[in-house]
Design goal:
- The protein has 3 domains: 178 residues, Beta-Lactamase, CATH 3.30.450; 76 residues; 136 residues, Heat Shock Protein 90 (2-Layer Sandwich), CATH 3.30.565.10.
- Helix content is 51%, strand content 22%.
- It contains 10 helices and 16 strands.
- The two termini are 51 Å apart.
- Bound molecules: adenosine-5'-diphosphate (ADP) and magnesium ion.
- Adenosine-5'-diphosphate binds next to helix 8 and helix 10.
Length: 490
């Protein structure tokens, strides 16, 4: 696997794993929060509904209490109790009282639970009424002429000697009533009756309230069972929310992955390109070595042969030379071709309009030791900025070295000449004698510990390649000035 690919993969992993962990954490946290918020809302609603039902049954109780006191004081009712008179009045009593008290259900039952007066049916007299348990609210399914309805009822007792009666009154529990109980638009209130087999949807949260006694009195008195009021919430909202979070999370992962990939790609080229270049140069060096040895081997053989012939049979030398001349020529031409081919590999410097002053400024930077005297309005020269930079760098570093740590100055000057721009690098350093100057441009000649001795020969080659010229003025103990002239762009 290539270095770049490995870097890309490891970078991707390093970015993606924390991102995924982070994203999943946020998702879970949000889901938990939403669920907790719902639970809180449902709990609050359950409390409110319990209070509502208690209040409703108190209100019914208050109306029954008022009815009770007017019944106790009602002479016509009393005359029916005591003497059996006014039967018609008693039969109609519950119907009228129910409407006046704003109730939906009202019955007066005797001690045995038989109907004395019914709010809905005059002819219910003497039938057994709903077997509603003692005190507190209860739910009753009561018959009407058309069908049946559900009522929230409470009861009260009264005595008109010698008899005792029971008042049962209530209000209808219909969908409107239930909707009134549920104040939260996302929550619904429902009733679960004992014979109800319909189940809540899966995914719905069902919270039951404390059970209420329930009597189905549509056919006869019925018996006491239990009904539940439940709060349900649709899972649709939470599902939609989760869906949204997933969508955004997915988008975030995608964007981050893309960014990570781009960054990794960029980084990998930054890091791996120099490395790969070095590997490539190493390979190239081995190849050059191999190719040159191949070219030299036949030459060496021919030379040895000729030397041997010259020693042993000098008379045959011209003949042997003529025989081997072809080998020598082909080896030389092989090496020439090789050199030409390798020359093509070296990066070509690109000559174009270049501002000398800005190259000088870039090269020197904020160096404190080096001064500049840059002429204004210099025309652009025809050169490669990188080549110029290497020339100046080499000359300036030599000039700084020549100070040998003592006080002194290094100055870079630019000025315009005839068709050229002149760059001078002068120092007040050690300078060179005539013989020192003669050797200074030789390859590998250096007077410095750790020097390469290549700087000046590179400078000379680069300047000449740029169609420029190089001059030196130097005096031992006084300093040196290296003068480079580069042609102006024509
Ligand atoms: N400005 C200078 N003043 C004095 N001597 C110099 C100057 N520039 C170059 N030389 C001499 O020329 C030698 C060769 O320089 P160079 O080719 O740049 O190689 P290096 O700097 O590695 O020694 C230096 O070692 C030094 O003796
Ligand atoms: Mg040098």
């Amino acid at each position: 696997m290539r270095f770049r690919t490995r870097l890309l993969i490891s970078f991707g992993v390093v970015v993606m794993i924390p991102l995924l962990v982070f994203g999943l954490g946020i998702r879970r946290e949000m889901s938990n929060r939403v669920t907790a918020e719902y639970t809180r809302r449902v709990d609050a609603l359950v409390n409110v509904i319990s209070a509502d039902i208690a209040r409703e049954s108190d209100r019914i109780g208050a109306r029954l209490a008022a009815l009770k006191s007017s019944l106790v004081a009602d002479d016509r009712f009393r005359s029916w109790v005591v003497r059996g008179e006014n039967r018609g009045y008693v039969l109609d009593y519950a119907g009228d009282a129910m409407r006046l008290a704003g109730l939906d259900f009202l019955q007066i039952q005797d001690d045995d639970g038989r109907v004395v007066s019914s709010g809905h049916f005059r002819n219910e007299y003497d039938r057994l009424g709903p077997a509603v348990p003692g005190a507190g609210p209860a739910l009753v399914r009561a018959a009407t002429a058309e069908s049946s309805f559900l009522a929230l009822v409470t009861s009260d007792t009264l005595r008109i000697p010698p008899r005792r009666f029971r008042l049962i009154g209530g209000i209808a529990v219909d969908s409107q009533f239930l909707a009134r109980l549920a104040r939260d638009p996302e929550l619904a209130v429902g009733l679960v009756l004992p014979n109800d087999t319909t189940k809540a949807d899966s995914g719905e949260l069902v919270v039951p309230l404390p059970p209420l006694p329930y009597v189905d009195a549509t056919e006869g008195p019925g018996r006491v069972e239990q009904a539940r009021i439940v709060v349900t919430r649709s899972s649709a909202f939470l599902t939609a929310l989760r869906h949204n979070v997933n969508l955004w999370f997915g988008a975030a992962v995608l964007v981050a992955a893309l960014a990570a990939l781009l960054l990794a790609g960029w980084l990998s080229t930054r890091i791996s390109e120099p490395l790969e270049a070095r590997i490539a140069i190493g390979d190239l060096a081995r190849q050059v070595n191999h190719d040159i040895k191949n070219g030299l081997a036949p030459l060496r053989n021919v030379f040895r042969h000729l030397a041997q012939v010259a020693r042993e049979k000098p008379a045959e030398l011209p003949q042997v030379f003529a025989e081997r001349q072809g080998t020598v020529e082909s080896s030389i031409s092989y090496l020439e071709t090789l050199a030409a081919n390798y020359a093509k590999l070296s990066p070509q410097s690109e000559r174009k309009a270049t501002d000398v002053n800005s190259v000088v400024r870039e090269t020197i930077g904020a160096s404190g030791t080096v001064r500049t005297k840059l002429a204004d309005g210099l025309p652009p020269v025809s050169a490669d900025a990188l080549v110029l930079r290497r020339v100046i760098e080499n000359l300036v570093s030599n000039a700084v070295d020549s100070l040998e740590g003592k006080n002194g100055t290094v100055t870079v000057t630019t000025e315009r000449g005839k068709n050229i721009v002149r760059i001078s690098v002068s120092d007040t350093g050690r300078g060179m004698s005539k013989s020192e100057l003669d050797k200074a441009f030789d390859d590998f000649h250096t007077t410095k510990p750790g020097g390469t001795g290549l700087g000046l020969s590179i400078v000379r080659r680069l300047v000449l390649d740029s169609n420029g010229s190089l001059n030196v003025e130097t005096e031992a103990g006084q300093g040196s000035t290296f003068i480079v002239e580069i042609p102006i762009l024509s």
